[in-house]
Each structure stands twice: as structure tokens, then as C-alpha cells.
């Protein structure tokens, strides 16, 4: 308490209060984070201190507009210049709208038939779509996830979307799985029973037929013929059974029992009666009813040109009230030999023919990396009816198939039991955005020999690959392979383009140099061997590589020439017979790799031991840069840096000198 001040702040005189304006502007995120900052005061120097906890924020619905903005009640306490100021702000209307600015939309009801042999179907349906997906989360609150097995019947699937402000929306749709698979009946086979006398009888015992279904068999009944354990006289008996599942699908099976007196011959008539068939009957519901009363003509049958009595064995009789949908009616005819024929037709009762087939939107995807296509999963077309509608893919590919690059039109046909058809299509476009790969030869150096103006160079074309196919591989800059290259640096560029227009390029350089020669006096020197041959130095050469590979071959027809090769007076090839070498492999030629001494003129001399059958002893010396003796690729692509011809006799031999840099 300050001296000279009343301890009760409410007892202060009105003159002691200083009026201040508090422009309150709550931020937009007031609801989410709270408004904790004190108000700004227009009076300069006024001290503001927040007193107490942040007051409650109350939202009051506007009494005038049902969906209008709500009032905001703020109750705050502040001290300005040591004086107590209580502000009560009522009905502060903020521009807050509780109406969501987004919409949650579910797919229409999905109708699908059961998978074969399964009481359900794996269903893929489009997930709900939020018109503005920012800060909106969607969860499934009821039903089953897509891609799971849905049982026969209708399953309600509900999704709920919530934004950051807590506003929620909900939508639902049904997944309807229809069972159209009929039961399977396992019955005994036709059999023959024999009697001792014409008036005798025999008891026929048989096991009850078994029925199975992808779901559940609701009824298995005997539709005709004697029961098991019945005493049978001479004649032919047809025993038939019907099976029905919970979805109303029905199947029938029958077998024949022939009872004859021993010593007699069974009937040779094996042809069953012939029914005069007519198409299914389609009718509309009776007024105010979901069924139709129908009188239909009994089918007729003949056997060997004679009429045969017919019998209704399954379905509703003529004059009955048929329910909405498809009802099967089956008649049976039996001739005197016991041959049985059946005729089944459908009664289709339609109350509303209006339904719609909706295909998904066109799909655009990129091919998988390294593949010329991709696996595409699309939603099953939707039928806006809960009736029995059969959906068939008539063109294109099924969902989860591998779609190649390009456009694939998928067409579906829907047909109800009344014969009404609808068709829809959508396109799957798979694009190839992957560029080809192209590999150019490495940069290389080639040499011009002597006074030639250029040198012919053959290089390998680049290798191009693509996830689909290469449509074009072409030279875009530089010289072709096999062209005469002049001295200098040549840049050669190639491009590869695939069928989708994706382009890749590569380039390499061919550096052409002129080989320098060093003038050296011709030398005649004896070998430091006991052979005493005279040497003629044919040429003096300069090479840029001190490691060279030398090949020696017969220069003409193989005639038994035998030579030795000396490098710097060392015999490196001893008395070998010359062969005619193959240029592509040098497999039959004499070859060796030599390390030259950079500090001297290295001598390469060939000594002749004979002149063969065709004098003189002639040979070709080929010198390659580097060690290429075991490198087949280099031998096919590189050219010799030197090529010389020697003529030798016993006592007189040729040679050359090599200086290396």
C-alpha cells in the first residue's frame, strides 16, 4: 500500500483515473493458442501489468443468425499507472466462421461379385476425397479397408475428416458383394440292378448326394425319383436332387437306375427327349407391388417324334407371384428308356430399369525406372444400383496389371438380369520420361606417319540402351568412322533418342599428331655374336612410348623362312619359322613386348637363317604402342605406329633403330 493512498482502489476519486484506449486486436489463432499479450495503450508512458490469469473466453451464438458468427466475451484485469482498471468487453464479434471451407466426398456404392470359390471378394475402392487437403486428416471409423476381403452382403464404410480447428465431416458408402456362384452337387453314377424274376423287386440303397458352395448350402432336396432304401421293380428310374445356397443360386443333378430281369437286354435308346425352348420372360412389377404375377406356357418335349410329359422340378409354377429380380424355373422330361432332359428358363421381374455405370477418371502415370511400363491399380467402375448387375472388362487390362508405355483404353460392360446394358471407358496413359544411356568410345590419340596429310581412323559407334527401345542413334557433330583425320583435335558427338523423344548425348575427342623423325646416320655394325652378319639399318624412328609390342610375320607366301630377332644385341626370338599373320587377331604372328631404353638408340635386327623356297627371306615388322600382346580389344581397334619390311640373307640382315620419348 502506498502512503497517502486509500487502501480501497474502488474508493479512488474519478479525477484520479486517466482514460486510456485499449485497441484490442486478437490474432487469428486466438482460439488455438490463446491471447496472452497485454493490450496496447495509446497514452505514452502508461505502465501496463497483467493481473491474474488469462480470463475465460466464452463463445455465444448470435441470436439473429442461426449460422452466423458468435460473440466473444473477454473479461480482463489490468493496472494502468497504479490504478485498477477492469475492462469488460461484451459481444465482441470476431470474423470467425464455424462453417468448414472444405468438403469430404465418398465414392458411390460399390457392387462386386464374389471371387471364384470364396464367400467374399477382395474389393478396391477409391478413398474419400477432401476438396482442400491442407491440415485435414481422414480416418475410417466403420467398415473395412480397401484391398481386404468383404463378405457377401452390404458393408457400410464410414470415413471422418477433421481439420486443425476441430471441424469434422463424415461420409459413408456401401460395398455390396453379390454371390452368383451356384452350389456343386456330387451324386452317384448311373447304375444297373438285376432281378431274378419279372415280378421280383430289389432294394436300392444309395448315399445321399453331397453339396458344396463357396458360401453356404441352404437346402439340398430330392426333386424326383425314389428315396434310398426303396424296393424297385423292373424299369428305369431317374433320381434328381436340387441344391440352393443362401443367395438363391440353384443347381441340379440326376442319375439313372436301370432295373432289369437277368437274361434280358437293356434298352438301346440313349437319346434323351428334346425340349422346345423359348427365351427368358421379362415382366414389370405389378402396380404398387415389388412382385409380378405371371402365367407362362408349360414347355413341350418330344422323343423320337412323339410328345413326352414334362414335370416342374424347380422354381415357381405358372400363375405364381414372382419376386423382383431373376427366378429360375426348371422342367424335366423322361422317355420310356429312362433318358432325362431338363430345360431351364428365367423369369426376370424389373421394378426400376434406371441405373448408371460410372468409370474412374483417366489415369496418367510414369513408367518404372528401367522398365517400359508400370503396374497400375485402378478403382472398379461403380454401378448406381443395388440390383444384380454383371460387370465385364471387354477391352484393355485388369487392375494391378502391367501396362506398357503408351495409351490403353479400358472398356467395361455392365448388364443386369433384364438384359439392359451400359458401357463406359477410361484411358490409362503410361509415359516414358527416362532418358536413354549412351556410351562413347574413350578419347584417343592417333598419329600421322611420314609426310601424309592425314590418317584414316576407324572408331566404334557409341552403344545406346533404353528402358524401352532406341529409335534413333546418330552422329551430330564431327567426322564419321573411316574418315581421313587431319592434324589437330577433333570432337565427335553422338545422340540417342528413344521412341518417347527422350534424348541423351555423348562426345569424345580424337587428337591427331604427326610423328616426328630424328635424322640419324645410317650405321653398319657387327652383332656381338659369333654369327658375323652384316647389318643394314633401314630406318631410324622416334616413338612416344618406351613400351612397345613387336609382331613379325612373313611378308608374302609362307615358304619356310626362319629368323631370329635381336633387340639391343639380345636375341629375344630364337630361330622361329615365319607365319602369315591374321590382322584381326595376330594369333599366328611372332610377338613380344619390349622395354626400350630412353637414353639410347635401340636397335631391332632380324637375322635370316635361310632364304626359304622363295628367296630372299622377307618379313613385315609391326610395332604397336604399349603392351597389347594379350589385349584383343586393343589389337582390333588400334593401328600400328610403325610398319617396316625387311629383306635378309644368311650373312646380311636388316634392322632399324627406335628412340623413345
Shape, principal axes of CA atoms? elongated
Main sheet specs: 5 strands, mixed
Which secondary-structure class do the elements indicate? mainly beta
**CA-based gyration radius:** 51 Å
Question: Termini distance?
Answer: 105 Å
Strand order of the largest sheet: 46-54-51-48-49
The overall strand count is 54
What percent of the residues sit in helical stretches (DSSP H or I)? under 10%
Q: Count of helical segments?
A: 2
Q: In percent terms, what proportion of residues is strand?
A: over 45%
Mean pLDDT: 79
Unreliable stretches: 1-25, 27-99, 518-530
Q: Would you summarize the structure shown here?
A:
This protein is mainly β and 661 residues long.
Structure description:
Strands 46-54-51-48-49 form a five-stranded mixed sheet, with no helix packed on it. The protein has two helices and 54 strands. A hairpin with a 2-residue loop joins strand 48 and strand 49 (570-577). Residues 1-25, 27-99 and 518-530 have low confidence and may be disordered. Helix content is 2%, strand content 50%. With 661 residues, it is mainly beta.
Amino acid at each position: 500500500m502506498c502512503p497517502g493512498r486509500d487502501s480501497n482502489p474502488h474508493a479512488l476519486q474519478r479525477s484520479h483515473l486517466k482514460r486510456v484506449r485499449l485497441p484490442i486486436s486478437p490474432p487469428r489463432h486466438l482460439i488455438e493458442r490463446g491471447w496472452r499479450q497485454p493490450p496496447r495503450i495509446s497514452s505514452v508512458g502508461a505502465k501496463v501489468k497483467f493481473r491474474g490469469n488469462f480470463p475465460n473466453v466464452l463463445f455465444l451464438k448470435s441470436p439473429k443468425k442461426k449460422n452466423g458468427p458468435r460473440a466473444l466475451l473477454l473479461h480482463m484485469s489490468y493496472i494502468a499507472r497504479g490504478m485498477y482498471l477492469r475492462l469488460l468487453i461484451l459481444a465482441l464479434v470476431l470474423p470467425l466462421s464455424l462453417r468448414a471451407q472444405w468438403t469430404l466426398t465418398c465414392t458411390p456404392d460399390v457392387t462386386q461379385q464374389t471371387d471364384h470359390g470364396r464367400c467374399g471378394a477382395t474389393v478396391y475402392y477409391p478413398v474419400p476425397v477432401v476438396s482442400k487437403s491442407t491440415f485435414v486428416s481422414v480416418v475410417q471409423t466403420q467398415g473395412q479397408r480397401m484391398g481386404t476381403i468383404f463378405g457377401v452382403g452390404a458393408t457400410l464404410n464410414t470415413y471422418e475428416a477433421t481439420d486443425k480447428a476441430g471441424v469434422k465431416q463424415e461420409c459413408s458408402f456401401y460395398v455390396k458383394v453379390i454371390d452368383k456362384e451356384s452350389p456343386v452337387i456330387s451324386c452317384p453314377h448311373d447304375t444297373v440292378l438285376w432281378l431274378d424274376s419279372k415280378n421280383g423287386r430289389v432294394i436300392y440303397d444309395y448315399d445321399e448326394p453331397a453339396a458344396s458352395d463357396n458360401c453356404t448350402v441352404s437346402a439340398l432336396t430330392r426333386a424326383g425319383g425314389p428315396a434310398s432304401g426303396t424296393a424297385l421293380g423292373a424299369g428305369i428310374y431317374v433320381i434328381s436332387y436340387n441344391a440352393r445356397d443362401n443367395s438363391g443360386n440353384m443347381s441340379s443333378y440326376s442319375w439313372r437306375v436301370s432295373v432289369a430281369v437277368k437274361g434280358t437286354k437293356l434298352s438301346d435308346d440313349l437319346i434323351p427327349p428334346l425340349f422346345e425352348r423359348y427365351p427368358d420372360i421379362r415382366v414389370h412389377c405389378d402396380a404398387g407391388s415389388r412382385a409380378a404375377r405371371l402365367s407362362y406356357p408349360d414347355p413341350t418335349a418330344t422323343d423320337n417324334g412323339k410328345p413326352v410329359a414334362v414335370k416342374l422340378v424347380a422354381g415357381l409354377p405358372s400363375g405364381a407371384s414372382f419376386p423382383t429380380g431373376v427366378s429360375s424355373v426348371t422342367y424335366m422330361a423322361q422317355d420310356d428308356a429312362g433318358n432325362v432332359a431338363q430345360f431351364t428358363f428365367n423369369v426376370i421381374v424389373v421394378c426400376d430399369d434406371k441405373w448408371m455405370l460410372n468409370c474412374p477418371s483417366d489415369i496418367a502415370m510414369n513408367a518404372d525406372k528401367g522398365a517400359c511400363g508400370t503396374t497400375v491399380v485402378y478403382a472398379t467402375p461403380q454401378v448406381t444400383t443395388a440390383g444384380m448387375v454383371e460387370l465385364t472388362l471387354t477391352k484393355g487390362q485388369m487392375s494391378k496389371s502391367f501396362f506398357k508405355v503408351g495409351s490403353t483404353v479400358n472398356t467395361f460392360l455392365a448388364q443386369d438380369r433384364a438384359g439392359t446394358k451400359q458401357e463406359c471407358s477410361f484411358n490409362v496413359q503410361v509415359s516414358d520420361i527416362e532418358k536413354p544411356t549412351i556410351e562413347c568410345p574413350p578419347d584417343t590419340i592417333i598419329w600421322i606417319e611420314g609426310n601424309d596429310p592425314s590418317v584414316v581412323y576407324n572408331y566404334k559407334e557409341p552403344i545406346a540402351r533404353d528402358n524401352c527401345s532406341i529409335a534413333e542413334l546418330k552422329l551430330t557433330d564431327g567426322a564419321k568412322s573411316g574418315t581421313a583425320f587431319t592434324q589437330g583435335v577433333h570432337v565427335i558427338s553422338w545422340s540417342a533418342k528413344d521412341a518417347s523423344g527422350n534424348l541423351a548425348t555423348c562426345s569424345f575427342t580424337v587428337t591427331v599428331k604427326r610423328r616426328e623423325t630424328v635424322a640419324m646416320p645410317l650405321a653398319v655394325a657387327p652383332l656381338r655374336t659369333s654369327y658375323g652378319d652384316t647389318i643394314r639399318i633401314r630406318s631410324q624412328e622416334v616413338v612416344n612410348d618406351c613400351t612397345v609390342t613387336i609382331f613379325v610375320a612373313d611378308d608374302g607366301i609362307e615358304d619356310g623362312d626362319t629368323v631370329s630377332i635381336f633387340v639391343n644385341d639380345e636375341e629375344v626370338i630364337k630361330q622361329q619359322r615365319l607365319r602369315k599373320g591374321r590382322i584381326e587377331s595376330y594369333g599366328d604372328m611372332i610377338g613380344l613386348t619390349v622395354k626400350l631404353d630412353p637414353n639410347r638408340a635401340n636397335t631391332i635386327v632380324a637375322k635370316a637363317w635361310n632364304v626359304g623356297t622363295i628367296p630372299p627371306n622377307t618379313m613385315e615388322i609391326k610395332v604397336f604402342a604399349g603392351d597389347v600382346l594379350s589385349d584383343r580389344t586393343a589389337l582390333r581397334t588400334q593401328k600400328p605406329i610403325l610398319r617396316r619390311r625387311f629383306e635378309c640373307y644368311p650373312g646380311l640382315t636388316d634392322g632399324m633403330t627406335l628412340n623413345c620419348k
